[in-house]
Amino acid sequence: MYNIKKNIDRLKRGEPTFFLEPNEIKEVNKYLKKDEFNIFKPFEEAEKIIFYKETLPKVVLFKIITKETLRHQDILGSIFSLNIDKEIFGDIIIDDNNYYFYLLDSMKDYFLTNFNKIKNNYIELKEININSLRDYKRKFKELELIIKSERIDTIVSNITNTSRSKVKDKFKNKEIILNYEILTNPSYLLKEEDIFSIRKYGKFKYLGKVKQTKKNNYIVKIYKYL
User: Fold this and answer.
1) What's the CATH number of domain 1-137, 3.30.70.330, 3.60.140.10, 3.20.20.240, 3.40.50.300?
2) Cα–Cα distance list, 142 to 32, 72, 139 (Å)
3) Which of 61, 70, 105, 162 has its CA 20 to 30 A from that of 168?
4) Residue 150: which residues within 8 A CB-CB, separation 6 or more?
5) pLDDT per residue rounded down to tens, the chain (226 residues)
């Protein structure tokens, strides 16, 4: 709740918010009228956006220069290793082995100085035009799973090829994120459009049941973010 109030207060002072995730966007919207703000959205399908009144927020777009193959979770983990709050950076984009992320301009120099390694690989940052990815469309790998239940622990077990008992440890260790918040309830039933992340395995969107099998299992469809 503090983060929501902080961003609303910034808007009331005429300052842009920080980057907001979808769950935070909904909360901020509850306290504001639509004509009270504009939206900075770097590309159409961006999940993290900024509200502002008149002056556009100062945001930079960095391209990560590397010869190595990176995963979304590798980039995210390395950013967080700098003790960076999620509100200062926007979406991370992987497009045909090219890697990008949005960042508040106020943190630009800090990242240029300190963000030089992802996992064990040295990288360079190159600032590119903020509109370079304006037409970017997200890419997914489509998965179809056969499951007995839409419980999230069942689906995590299937995706990670891990026993249900070991999956419980992932919940205890806060390795499961549902709709941008830590999930501790392994019995949660996934709903269509739920977005969840599994540490070291990536980010997913649940699309729902496709059909029921003769053995009363379900075939469900899931998108894995690329």
Assistant:
1) 3.30.70.330
2) 37, 17, 10
3) 70
4) 189, 190, 209, 218, 220
5) 778 899 999 998 999 999 999 889 988 888 887 788 999 999 999 999 999 999 899 999 999 999 999 988 899 999 999 999 999 999 999 998 899 999 999 999 999 999 999 988 999 999 999 999 999 998 889 999 999 999 999 999 999 999 988 999 999 999 999 998 899 999 999 999 999 999 889 899 999 999 999 888 999 999 998 7
96 burial via Cβ count (<10 Å: 0-12, 13-18, 19+): exposed
Distance CA 197, CA 180 (A): 8
pTM of the model: 0.80
Alpha helices of 19-163 — where are they, by DSSP H?
Answer: 22-31, 72-80, 108-114, 152-160
C-alpha 206/C-alpha 97 separation (Å) is: 25
| Both structure tokens of 5 | 């109030």
Q: Which CATH number fits domain 140-225: 3.30.365.10, 3.40.50.10330, 3.40.50.920, 3.10.290.10?
A: 3.10.290.10
